[in-house]
Amino acid sequence: WEWPSYLDPETQEKGLKVKISSFRRQVRNKLATAKVNGNYVQSIVALNEAIEQGFDETLMLDTDNFVAEGSGENFFMVKDNKLISPDLDASLDGITRRTVIDLAEELNIDFEERKILLEEVFNCDEAFFTGTAVEVVPINSLDNKPISNGLRGPVTEKLQKTYLEQVRGKRTANADWLTTVKR
Predict the structure, then answer these.
(1) Count of domains in the chain?
(2) End-to-end CA distance of the chain
(3) Which PANTHER family match (predicted)?
(4) Average pLDDT over every residue of 121-132
(5) CA distances from 53 to 17, 23, 24, 47 (A)
(6) What residues act catalytically?
């Protein structure tokens, strides 16, 4: 059946206004990388903090001040056409994250997983979140500072388009990733 997007088309194109959270993800803690109910409490509080201040989403750092993830999404940035995502010391190894990494490889987009300094995000060319609900959504600003020119970048757009085609069964590549559900 048709699976509607969680975000409206305008947000999918123009992106999210993101706030750096005052809450931190624990580093090298098995609970930090597990999808468990206790982690959602911190995420909800962090997201509410951002929304109360007029933002759409939050970016959480780890206790060593490296970029971790959003309140319920994985983080990616692009610098010099290279896709970069934080290591998994303080974030979930999400299915959507892994799918985007696989698609990047197919599209010949270089990928690197490593620790990311906050200053790098302010100086990156593009940034986006991934997740089951948000799929692939650009980040247009961080703490009211535009990411690059504040628009969805070409790498983000290519990955977003390819991801949406993939999960909607419009690509022949990786067809075995999908299970058809009949009504």
Answers:
(1) 1
(2) 7
(3) AMINO-ACID AMINOTRANSFERASE (PTHR42743), AMINODEOXYCHORISMATE LYASE (PTHR42743:SF11)
(4) 98
(5) 11, 15, 18, 10
(6) 35
